[in-house]
Amino acid sequence: MSARQMKLGAFLMATGHHVAAWRHPQVPADAGLDFQHYRHLAQVAEAGCFDTLFLADSVAAATGDSASQMARSDHFEPLTLLSALSVVTERIGLISTVTTSYNEPYHVARQFASLDHLSGGRAGWNLVTSDAAAEAGNFGRDEHIGHAERYSRAREFHQVVTGLWDSWSADAFVRDKASGQYYDPAGRRELNHVGDHFKVKGPLNVARSPQGRPVVVQAGSSEAGRALAARTADVIFTAQPSLTAAQAFYADLKNRAATFGRSADELKIMPGVFVVVGETQALAQAKFEAFQDLVQPEVGVALLGRMLGNFDLSGYPLDGPLPELPLTDSGQRSRQQLLSELAEREHLNLAQLGRRIAGGRGHFSLIGTAAQIADQLQLWFQNGAADGFNVLVPHLPGGLEDFARQVVPELQRRGLFRTHYTGTTLREHLGLPEINGR
Amino acid sequence: MSARQMKLGAFLMATGHHVAAWRHPQVPADAGLDFQHYRHLAQVAEAGCFDTLFLADSVAAATGDSASQMARSDHFEPLTLLSALSVVTERIGLISTVTTSYNEPYHVARQFASLDHLSGGRAGWNLVTSDAAAEAGNFGRDEHIGHAERYSRAREFHQVVTGLWDSWSADAFVRDKASGQYYDPAGRRELNHVGDHFKVKGPLNVARSPQGRPVVVQAGSSEAGRALAARTADVIFTAQPSLTAAQAFYADLKNRAATFGRSADELKIMPGVFVVVGETQALAQAKFEAFQDLVQPEVGVALLGRMLGNFDLSGYPLDGPLPELPLTDSGQRSRQQLLSELAEREHLNLAQLGRRIAGGRGHFSLIGTAAQIADQLQLWFQNGAADGFNVLVPHLPGGLEDFARQVVPELQRRGLFRTHYTGTTLREHLGLPEINGR
Questions:
Q1: Which residue intervals define the domain Luciferase-like in the entry (chains A, B) (predicted)?
Q2: Which alpha helices (DSSP H) does B31-103 contain, by range?
């Protein structure tokens, strides 16, 4: 077995990542609110030794009419879901997205610390800024917070949350029954944070959590996103369409981390990879096409509009080009760029582009046999493009079962991936430095 | 069996409600962050057919030095805890306190709707306003929000949360695979709330929950608290020191509910009752005294100060009277009144009053045999003072085991309490009207 081991995340999304997955006969259409579905997914991923589960999130329902509606307007709130899943799993990490744009750091610090205790050290927070204008409307605002402001708030939010996680030393709670001393005041650290966005006194009302601090994941690819991630993230989740793009991103982030005095190992880079597994390449392709055939053109285009920064593209001709869209401050600049490059490279009209991203949403896509998929993952992993992958599958639970039972054993045979968990915490799985909190 | 059945809540608090419980040899001092402890409590309560678990909450750590520190600065965040408990229970309700003062209604609506789905219709929200100035400091404020403002915000908060719970009709998500229609637009209700405190567009990104709306509990006893509860609460939790006080409160709230066009049955009134069970009255008293003997005087007085509205009483002589304290706007007016009347009635000095409330914190207290306790509960229940009780025990898990295994069977023998669950949702347990959400 090679010393360096690949990291794997199971990016769960209700019926799967393919926009039309819910229409497939093998997919439970009501998966978003079916706890038994998620229990099964978590247990399949854990049997496959995945490092972590990974949940996306949005604090608004998807918009649009019923036909152009992705199956995402009815799903569990992720912290409650992961807390429930902590009880039916033992080792796998539990990462959820929570936005910094429309939350208070005290609540976020507390929920993840609580989840870290519930799970025995398996919690992770995917720190994002909100990109959907619809979210603003649920939190008292007419307009979305601008990009610069969002990142300034996110930076400070991270500072407050980690400061609150450090509220107590690991041995602060002595609980000495004889003397009546419940905690040692020397182990208590008030935060007294005063900044541009937040004023938070602390301490947190949760003892130091098993991991010292839950794992912090970030996904921003803009300049501001990269700068924040290089300084503060433990893990970076990113969409990279090709090996060369991924290598450039990987090198850039590892270099940036070094400028903050961090070693390359302290920052794990995990691109997303959309995977469809089949016993032959043709069977895999046919499996994928079965989902593609279920995509209504207006659904693909609506998804495209959301990904580009919540644009309504319904007025544009389906057989026309991707229209020039303003690179608005509230939009998803880095994703806009990714998708317009894709359209240009592959000469896709609007409907075709919508269909093209209906599965992997611009992530690196692999459709083939387990060996073919393992070849590509190995190539990226061993050539400076990835420390591991966040795995997106078209449909659930089938796609995850395929990956865990076919691709994982292939990676294990090659000595690239663990055959059993050696640690108990998410930090241990990921090979991140311990934070002992003394 | 009599037609009308008593409702019972198991008010869980880490090591128990007695301020010195954690020092007792039979109590796990680190219970606040021990999931196995809570799993056991939930299962004991469910075996005893309790209607619900009930969790208090605060969004700040307790203050004071280590010796005057109640075992409450290290505990789970309640929504994550209840979500985890939903997996290891099947019938019992899951109620948590969440403050309206330092939260956003979209998050709160979403978390409880999600818990309601996770648990198959067992979620309940204890709506409170924050009374601890320490909480303000964790949410950007120097000063606590004033009483009137808190209640004005709470009223509107409730309106937004229930409006968001009504975002979707029960049959909105049709998920028709053949046509590709995921939901029926006719079942979607945007909220578009614009008020003094909140502006929330909606809809919620969670489908209608199994109970239609999670159960809403309130605990305010002030004029503003009563007015809000009579209009909007499903259940009222209250501290009433005596039968006559409880009867007056009960009559007042049921009358107020009627003025809002609500039937008496739509509002369940559940006073807290602090219970110590023993095989004889003397044994029960001895059990209680074992806890009392562990109370350090300054700990009792510190608890008293917190209950009176976060006053620091450490400068006052322990053998002197309860000092005259300002009825501040930020204080707990109704609890101040309760405690000063108690001190006067029983001629207690400061240390004695602290010790007096170290167990039941001013709630109705019963120390005796199962039959004696059942007598009193029956008396209140059958004489217009209570629809049921929220049960506080000195220590956990022992006190809850005593109640579930000794008092519950006694109530069952008298036909006052269920011997098995007949419904599956918390609304069904409590006999509350169904909300079908069509």
A1: 18-385
A2: 35-47, 78-87
Under an 8 A CB cutoff, do B118 and A71 touch? no
Do the Cβ atoms of A66 and B184 come within 8 Å? yes
CB within 8 Å: A62 and B205? yes
Q: How far is CA B419 from CA A289, B47, B92, B408, B411, in A?
A: 56, 10, 13, 9, 9
Q: What whole-number distance in Å separates Cα of residue B191 and Cα of residue B186?
A: 14
**Residue B224 half-sphere exposure, CB side, CA atoms within 13 Å?**
15
Q: Locate the chain A residue with the closest alpha carbon to B32.
A: A206
| Residue among A24, A25, A205 whose CB faces B73 most closely | A205
Tokens linked to B278: 């023993």
Distance from CA of B207 to the nearest CA of A (A): 5
CATH 3.20.20.30 occupies which residues in chain B? Answer: 7-132+204-277+362-430
- Comparing CB atoms, the residue among B58, B60, B207 nearest residue A74 is B207
Q: What is the per-residue pLDDT across B323-377, written as a single tens digit (0 to 9) for each? A: 887 765 544 667 788 888 889 999 999 999 999 888 888 889 999 999 999 999 9
Contacting residues of A for B291, CB less than 8 Å apart: none
**d(CA B129, nearest CA chain A) in Å:** 16
Average pLDDT over residues A142-170: 92
Cα of A325 to nearest chain B Cα, Å: 26
Q: Considering CB atoms only, which of B102, B111, B201 is closest to A137?
A: B201
Higher local confidence (pLDDT), B65 or A280: A280
| C-alpha span between A430 and A213 (Å, rounded) | 14
Residue that wins the pLDDT comparison between B146 and A109: A109
Does residue B228 carry a pLDDT above 70?
yes
| pLDDT exceeds cutoff 50 at A330 | no
Q: What is the DSSP string of B207-220?
A: --BTTBS-EEEE--
pLDDT at A133: 77
Could you give the CA distance from residue B28 to residue B26 in angstroms, rounded to a whole number? 7
Tell me which H or E stretch contains B275: strand B268-277
Q: CB distance A180–B140 less than 8 Å? A: no
| Most A CBs within 10 Å, among B27, B30, B36, B66, to test the A interface | B66
What is the CATH code of the structural domain delimited by A7-279+363-430?
3.20.20.30
Residue B208: closest CA among chain A residues belongs to which residue? A74
Q: Using a CB-CB distance cutoff of 8 angstroms, which residues of chain B are in contact with residue A141?
A: 199
Our CA-based measurement puts residue A121 at a distance from the nearest CA of chain B, in whole angstroms, of 12
**Residue (of A213, A255, A261) closest to A234 by Cα position:** A213
C-alpha to C-alpha distance for A137 and B319, rounded to whole angstroms: 56
> Which CATH class name applies to B7-132+204-277+362-430?
alpha beta
**pLDDT reported for residue B359:** 84
What residues contact residue B50 under an 8 Å CB cut-off, 6+ apart?
B8, B9, B10, B92, B391, B404
The interface predicted TM-score (ipTM) is 0.95
Cis peptide bond prior to B25, omega within 30° of 0? no
* Average pLDDT value for residue range B220-235: 91
Higher pLDDT, B151 or A309: B151
Q: Where do the CATH 3.20.20.30 domains begin and end in chain A?
A: 7-279+363-430
pLDDT of B1 reads 47
